[in-house]
Amino acid sequence: MRHFKNRSIIASATLISTFYFAQSDTLKSKKIDEVVLLGSRGSGRSLTDTPVPVDVINISKILKQSPVNNISQALNYIVPSFSSTSHTVNDGTDFVDPAQLRGLGPDQVLVLLNGKRRHQSSLINVTLTPGRGSVGTDLNAIPTFALDKIEVLRDGASAQYGSDAIAGVVNLGLKKRLGLSGQLFLGGYASPVTNNFSGGLDGETISLDLNYGFKLGKQGFFNITTSTQYRDPYSRAGVRNGDIYNAYNAINYRAAQDGIDIDGLYKNINNTSNSQQIINTIKQYATKVNYFSSDLQNKIANANNISTLQGLLGGDVTNDELAYRGLQRKDFSIRAGQSKLQSAQVYYNSEIPINDDWKVYSFGGYSYRLGNAGGFFRLPNTERNINFITPNGYLPQIESTINDYSYAAGIKGKWNDWNIDLSNTFGKNTFNFGVVNTFNSSLVNNSPRRFDAGGLEFLQNTLNLDFSKKYDVLHGLNIAFGGEYRYENYKVNAGNENSYASYDIYGNVVTVNTPKNELVTDFFGVTRPAGSQVFPGFSPDNAVSGNRNSVAGYVDVELEPTDWWLVEGALRYENYSDFGSTFNYKLATNVKLADNFNWRGAVSTGFRAPSLAQIYYSSTSTLIQQGNTTQVGTFRNNSEAAQALGIPKLKQETSQSYSTGLTWKAPNLNLVVTADVYYIKIKDRVVLTDLFFRPKGTRGVDFPEGSDQAILQDAFDLARASAANFFANAVDSQTKGLDLTISQTSNLGSGINLENNFGLNLNQTRRIGNIHASPKLVSQIDSYFSEPNRIYFEEAVPRVKATLSNNLRVLGFNILLRNSFFGKVTDADVLDANFDGVVGKQEHFVLNNRFVTDLSVGYDFSKNISATIGSNNIFNVMPSKNPLINSLTADNQFVYSRQVSQYGIGGRFLFTRVEFKF
């Protein structure tokens, strides 16, 4: 296999070298003179004349031969500085892929749709993945087939576009084409790793996209896209190790076969009038377990109380019981891989001229997605299972319903040579959590199997007024200014009571006054947990509706003092109703050092307003400890708990960005080369801390009055909490790196064209300076920015990433060969990775470099119909396997890391795509 991989790289190099033999038969490349509008409020410039790096991606052309079918995965393989992968067994993050640019957070890249600010997702990433604690934009809410091109500005742009544009800006351009087009996409994973390493086909995907555009009057248009998709899940779980059944499960199962529910004879094993009946029933059915030793049978027969039986029946009998029930360990596997998805989306784009100077426009759409992802398997030998109903345990599943709405309308035109654009953009995202195939185990047999666990909502409305005018000064002067008003609202909606509450033996909600002997337990006296298993619902204490508004004004100037020098400058003032104001600037330049050889550079400041989710999100559970109510979980930043523990009110992140680079184009070779280095410093980054704990011990005995421990105990008691984490402006960081792109197109003969594209990103992010800790929590400072959090910031995305694609068109055939290099990433768990018996403070499992090869072959049957077959990861290159350490594998369930991945764990993906256009 390694030889084949090497040959694919050699094939790429061979294809690149062939353009040298084309000599005078070069074909003029559209990339040479591609006009870039992103990052400029003027009339646009070519790729090499911009003062900052911008990628222009003809997504409608690339999609035709691509093995992926959504925006985030397409960009992950096309733009080296962009990272996005799917995750598994991580709650809501199974359905929304965090997307990062230059290794920074998902919320530090701004997304535009047709040049207008796109709303963020309502889901905040609080699980164990890159981008933890952040809220990104759900790119996959927009069907890829609706897009004509994507622009990626790889530089800070807050002075031009406002909050979030620290790492850069992604602009998605909707189609304007006329006529009918469509595609049918079929794909699935096929390799030895599919179906939990039993082979075959899994993760099948089928999607149908249709696009239709027609004229409105002489110059107007209306374009609409519909997209439907069905995607099966896949799993790459190993065969479970560890205990599954205990001796009590075996007896309980024999009784259940006769219709007798032993667990139904009690609610609290220490508070039941049926003790003797329970003992007798256990003795009766223990004799039917033929693999019990005679010694164990005798001890059971002689037991005369529950506590004695508890001591006898907790032992592991997994192998014997599996044989009796005709099951295997693999029947208890989790679903480690892609979630199930059904979606329907519709997007439109339109313009209608009013007269020669003015036109109205509108665009937007609706996206509906229903997803299903598995959690951890609830085994029979735990208090989370109801053995009479699910004697072999169960796999609880999160069923998400994601609705996304967007609508923009405006009018633009000319007045006294001024370009004027007035627009309003509305967006809303809702994420509702359903939980299925599960229990609230405190309700035991009366528990429903499906729960409404509540949900999240985010709404944004943006009003913009922009002016620009070009003056005939020196070699060109463009002045732009404008304003923006934005309103945002964030909600957490409570779930049904049975999704979060714990119930006592009488079916009442547990309170501080509930005696311990009225709590529901399993046979071994373990209290059954509250809420729907896998995802307890949001409680009324978590429910909230928070809003804010902001106003902004900006000035943007572009001047060409000579025909070889461009200077740009931008100033922006923005005021937020919740944290105050911010002022940012940007200076950028492009200098022609020689024909087709330019130097460019930029310096800017930026900011990111803390998202409303980071301010208002909470997810807490109420526990009863020694007769007192206490809370555990994530508390709101503006909560009493945060105030009691000295967590400051969130403020904006601020940044300083510097970039410089060279561009070169060789028109006779249709060759474009760009190289840019960058440095980004960010202050007061918002992180989700780890849990802080109330100190144990008694003041005056274990520690003196007035000590740090005593003060912290008082703070936790005031907060009515025993363990808590928060969003906080905890750290500063620096990011530095290099972007290199090379593009070349050649005509190799009659009807034979070759396009080569190479991209490289080198990137490093580090925390700098001290952690910004609350004085009350200094003793637990490692929980502010823990070692796992450091990994998510610094080492969870590749520091080196490169792509080399070769697209050969010959006699109606289109052949795409793409090789992608993904550098090392680090799993966040701290463990004995080198098996030397010592766990270092920064010792982790490292996933090694990988080359992934894609190959597709397409054929144009006519100018209207084409078909493509191919493969992503054709050589089935898998990420590094987890070492056999239980904290990583969870009893051998996670063969591959569930926290980090360079490109996913699916393996070889085969696809076919049929496209038509008229």
Can you put this structure into words, describing what you see?
With 918 residues, this protein is mainly beta. The protein is 13% helix and 42% strand. It contains 16 helices and 37 strands. It has a 22-stranded antiparallel β-barrel. A five-stranded mixed sheet has the order 3-8-9-6-7. The protein has a four-stranded mixed sheet with strand order 23-24-28-27. Strand 11 (201-216) and strand 12 form a beta hairpin. Helix 6 packs across helix 7 (275-286). The radius of gyration is 30 Å and the shape is globular. It starts with a helix and ends with a strand.
Provide the fold topology.
Blueprint: H1 2-17, E1 35-36, E2 45-46, E3 54-57, H2 59-63, H3 71-78, E4 82-84, E5 99-101, E6 109-113, E7 116-117, E8 147-153, H4 158-161, E9 168-174, E10 179-190, H5 194-197, E11 201-216, E12 220-231, H6 247-256, H7 275-286, H8 294-302, H9 306-312, H10 318-325, E13 340-353, E14 358-374, E15 397-415, E16 418-436, E17 450-471, E18 477-493, H11 497-500, E19 544-562, E20 565-576, E21 580-594, E22 597-608, H12 612-616, E23 619-625, E24 628-634, H13 640-644, E25 653-666, E26 671-688, E27 692-693, H14 708-719, E28 721-725, E29 727-749, E30 752-768, H15 787-794, E31 800-810, E32 813-822, E33 825-826, E34 846-847, E35 850-860, E36 865-872, H16 886-889, E37 909-917
Parallel strand pairs: 6-9, 24-28
Antiparallel strand pairs: 1-2, 3-8, 4-5, 6-7, 8-9, 10-11, 10-37, 11-12, 12-13, 13-14, 14-15, 15-16, 16-17, 17-18, 18-19, 19-20, 20-21, 21-22, 22-25, 23-24, 25-26, 26-29, 27-28, 29-30, 30-31, 31-32, 32-35, 33-34, 35-36, 36-37
Helix pairs in contact: 6-7
